[in-house]
Design a protein that fits this description.
Layout: H1 5-14, E1 37-44, E2 49-55, E3 64-67, E4 70-73, E5 75-76, E6 83-88, E7 96-103, E8 106-107, E9 112-115, E10 126-132, H2 153-165, E11 170-174, H3 182-189, H4 192-197, H5 218-235, E12 244-247, E13 259-260, E14 263-264, H6 270-283, E15 287-288, E16 299-300, E17 307-308, E18 311-316, E19 320-325, H7 342-353, E20 359-364, H8 406-420, E21 427-431, E22 437-445, E23 448-449, E24 455-460, H9 471-474, E25 485-494, E26 498-505, E27 509-515, E28 529-536
Parallel strand pairs: 10-11, 11-12, 19-20, 21-24
Antiparallel strand pairs: 1-2, 2-6, 3-4, 3-7, 5-6, 7-8, 7-9, 10-26, 13-14, 15-17, 16-17, 18-19, 22-23, 22-24, 22-25, 26-27, 27-28
Length: 537
């Protein structure tokens, strides 16, 4: 039996303050009545829509979504009934649909519009994409001057609103949607600082038991504490009419990418892989796999639209193709080492060489063109606090960076060679992970001469990073160009928050990197300004 509108509003008002943490109020910031919807994130293809949402309290019966005369019953994702998904296939391309969400006979929120993407053979005139990385991080209550590890949730929401004010057609959230590395959190709880701060941060109280499953145990409660704090409270409902594509990276597995004598964190253990998969299951949509090869790992068949968990495609008519790939979940070591599996590499190479769109971009979770001296990189560089190359402190048998894999470099070379070999498209890579803004033009990579079509490498810009999260402070080292790369800096690396906007038309592409003020700014006063502009004609 459905809830009446009065019962829905009473339920929302009766919830404790912690249950509404991060909501912009009963209504969203733009006046849209969100009712009890806590967060709502959609993605789209030419024929399908896929939505994830959470409510402030569980429902005993599934909600329904009406789309273009079709009605779909929600798929319950959690044990209680607070998280729901909707997959809708068989839609017309490039069509705006009116979506209505209801429980029983009563609406749960206001209707809203959402558009499918153009068909693969359509000829759209323009496309605008916004891209960012590293929006995660606990919503710490202390003033930034005391402990500024992450930007406050209100600050990140304001930055998202500034991004959306540019009216992008779609958005790419590239990795590190949460920061809750289990070993580091255990150590922080035992520290003086942790004992002072963590009791006041709802999302930081979560404790995980690796001997238990994630869903249906105390781990599920812990995971939703983290996700509500770092995802639902940040995104809210502001992206409801803008398709968004989520790529995952190391911190989304609740680890940092480390290799020590005690072991490696990637590829993830079954428990950490389950944490990542459940985080995605509850909070953000998988890629729609309408046109993806069935050989890619992480494919989910069934329902009205096939999905893909780690690897995806944005296809916008014949104008643009974006290839999105997680460089951590299927990382391998040994003679056949790769950051993405062989089947994924083959797909990336095939789509890059098949020039059936006017523009193409690789969108890996891990950056190409820069090194921070970390273990899981395409490059073998080890850096000291000045950014200079040094011998690794922890070495392998050959004296190189411990457990770094030569196969990662070989895969890097294959991908860059394919990008530079395009005959009619400019080579473009837009990466996540690195806490910085930056742009470079790569004209040499090892023995590869790329000058005929240099690879333009863009760092998309971090959203949630606070002052102590910059590489020069967190790790004591700033990133730089790897030794094996010959590149011209187009935007010197800047440790600043921001995002990237890419405009594609039928004759050219423009990449603009927007930066925030370098010092902390109150959310209401936050502004962004172009820090860099690149024209790819």
């Amino acid at each position: 039996m459905g809830l009446s509108r009065r019962e829905v509003l009473a339920l929302a008002l009766a919830l404790p303050g912690s249950a509404l943490l991060g909501c912009d109020g009963a209504d969203s910031s733009d006046g849209w009545n969100r009712g009890p919807v806590r967060h709502l994130l959609p993605t789209a293809s030419g024929r399908s829509l896929h939505l994830k949402l959470s409510l402030v309290a569980p429902l005993s019966a599934p909600p329904r979504l009406s789309v273009g005369g079709q009605t779909r019953t929600g798929e319950r994702l959690d044990s209680a009934g607070r998280f729901w998904a909707f997959r809708v296939g068989g839609l017309a391309p490039d069509t705006e649909y009116r979506l209505e969400l209801a429980h029983g006979q009563e609406p749960l929120c206001d209707p809203w519009p959402l558009r499918t993407l153009p068909a693969r053979d359509a000829q759209p005139s323009r496309l605008r994409i916004a891209s960012f990385t590293c929006a995660g991080g606990a919503n710490l209550p202390t003033p930034p001057s005391v402990f500024h590890a992450f930007k406050p949730a209100a600050w990140r929401r304001r930055l998202f609103d500034l991004m959306l004010a540019g009216e992008p057609d779609l958005v790419i959230a590239n990795g590190d949607h949460v920061y809750f590395d289990l070993p580091q959190m255990d150590a922080l709880r035992d520290s003086t600082l942790g004992r002072l701060i963590l009791p006041f941060v709802d999302g930081a109280k979560a404790r995980f038991d690796p001997t238990l499953a994630v869903l249906g145990t105390a781990n599920e409660t812990a995971l939703t504490m983290v996700g509500d704090d770092q995802i639902a409270s940040i995104y809210g409902v502001r992206f409801r009419s803008t398709p968004i594509f989520f790529v995952t990276d190391d911190h989304d597995y609740f680890v940092n990418d480390d290799a020590t004598l005690e072991g490696t964190t990637l590829p993830p253990s079954p428990f950490h892989a389950a944490l990542r998969d459940t985080l995605q299951r509850l909070y953000f949509p998988e890629f729609i796999a309408d046109d993806l090869p069935t050989t890619l790992p992480g494919r989910l068949d069934g329902g009205r639209a096939a999905l893909s968990t780690h690897f995806g495609e944005i296809r916008y008519g014949d104008l643009f193709e974006g290839l999105l790939y997680d460089c951590g979940g299927f990382l391998s070591l040994g003679a056949e080492a790769r950051l993405v599996p062989r089947s994924v590499e083959a797909w990336l190479l095939d789509r890059t060489r098949n020039e059936d769109t006017l523009h193409l971009a690789h969108i890996p979770s891990h950056p190409m063109g820069w090194t921070a001296g970390k273990w899981r990189e395409w490059y073998p560089d080890q850096l000291d606090s000045t950014g200079a190359a040094v011998a690794p402190v922890l070495q392998d048998e050959a004296g190189g960076k411990y457990l770094w894999q030569q196969g990662w470099w070989r895969q890097h070379q294959a991908l860059l060679e394919a990008l530079a070999s395009q005959s009619r498209r400019k080579a473009l890579v837009v990466s996540g992970d690195l806490h910085a803004l930056g742009a470079a033009r790569i004209d040499r990579s090892g023995g590869l001469d790329l000058e005929a079509n240099p690879v333009h490498a863009i760092l998309s810009g971090p959203v949630g990073v606070g002052d102590v999260g910059w590489p020069s402070r967190a790790r004591g080292v700033s990133a730089r160009t790897p030794d094996a790369i010959g590149a011209e800096s187009l935007l010197d690396l800047e440790e600043r928050n921001g995002f990237t906007v890419m405009d594609f038309d039928r004759g050219s592409a423009t990449v603009r990197i927007f930066g925030c003020p370098p010092d902390y700014t109150a959310p209401a006063n936050l502004t962004v300004a172009p820090a860099f502009e690149l024209e790819l004609a």
